[in-house]
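Hi support team,

I'm opening this ticket because the web form for multi-chain structure prediction keeps timing out on my end. I have pasted the exact lines I submitted so you can reproduce it. The total is 441 residues across two entries, so I didn't expect it to be a heavy job. Is there a limit I'm missing, or should I split the entries? Thanks in advance, R.K.
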Amino acid sequence: MPRIVVMFTEIDTVTLDEPVAERPALKPWRTKKRIRGKPVNKADGSCETRTEWVSHVRRIRDAQDQAAFAELFQHFAPRIKAFLIKSGSDAALAEECAQEVMATLWHKAHLFDPTRATVATWVFTIARNKRIDVLRKQRRPEPEDLGWGPEAEPEQDNVIALQQETAQLRNAIAALPEAQRELIEKAYFGDLSHREIASATGLPLGTIKSRIRLALDRLRHAMN
Amino acid sequence: MMSNDIKHHLTDDLLMAYAAGTLPEAFDLMVATHLSLCDHCRARAESFEAVGGCVLQDQDATASMSDSSLAATMALIAQGAPAAKPARPGCSVLPAPLQDYVGGGVNDIKWRSIGMGVKQAILPTTREATARLLFIPAGAAVPDHSHNGIELTMVLQGAFSDEVDHFARGDVEIADEDLHHTPTADISEDCICLAVTDAPLKFNKLMPRLFQPFLRI
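Hello R.K., no limit was hit. The queue was backed up. Here is the completed structure from your submission:
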């Protein structure tokens, strides 16, 4: 009797037919939780509850604003560099790649969709693709583009909701037991194979998944 | 292009590894092709990218950039954006990522016969894993086989059935060492699939096994 590989068991939070509330109630995530000893929701805004980085990207897109870019660079470039070093790059190559990632951010500012990703998430995907290209020397197939429809700007409510839900996700990750958090980091630094990754799942993704799904539905609707 | 009827989806570990960027290229191609047809999995994959964003945000900013790095980046930007990929004409069978690997639409696939009307076309990826398109004539069966590693098969046109279930456009069957199956195409239409494997297939009849070295499957 052949064993059947079941593909559905892990999909338990979102199904295709599940009705999604337009404004899901925000969970009272434990705002006192700390990320690596640092308070969350710091006044200096390093937490993503604010949407300021979104307006920075818009200023680059609309006005080639170099001051906005400099602030984004100061925040993200060192983090990209640290991420690439932990992924196995030497410091010089990581620095060069971080510059190229930031240049890509400038050139692709018009493609950023803040109802589907925070700026940090978007920067992560660009850095990840750079790592695949430079360190692994592989092409990176990407899904078919879902272009912007006639709706020029997404509604601010949807932008804020996505940013807030990502902040909650970040808090939830910070609240995980140390060992599990390390597993997740390892997975994203490329230290785990996809079979090993199975044990790193169980992340609280239900709300953000529903939010992104709404954004995709909106895009599909605009395209038709 | 999107189908709302997909019943067989990708697993969380594959989507997370795709978001993390740690899959062999052939598996990336499978995931990107499925996500082009399945917004359900695309939302799941993008939520795993959000986890990556959180990991990036929590990096210590101690890997400081050199003093001249911002100026160097502005110089890079001044060189202009890299040329955009030329737009592909639409193809109702192949989603965009596959068109990039085929170099066109379904009529541009360079098929090679592997017997009994079944054809395949191997796509150019890194060697850790193999991606190929399979053509199974309506009503025909692929010989009974099992797998050394993991094999993902996604339907692009037509449909097939095997000992497990019925698979239509967008559906992915995930098979491993323990699955022996004989996929049979529906009688109504020729079936085209994308198949990705991280190890050679084991055919259970003598002839196909003899051919394996030549077929690179």
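A quick check on our side: Helices of chain A lie at 52-63, 66-86, 91-107, 119-134, 156-174, 178-189, 194-197, 206-223. Let us know if the file doesn't open in your viewer.
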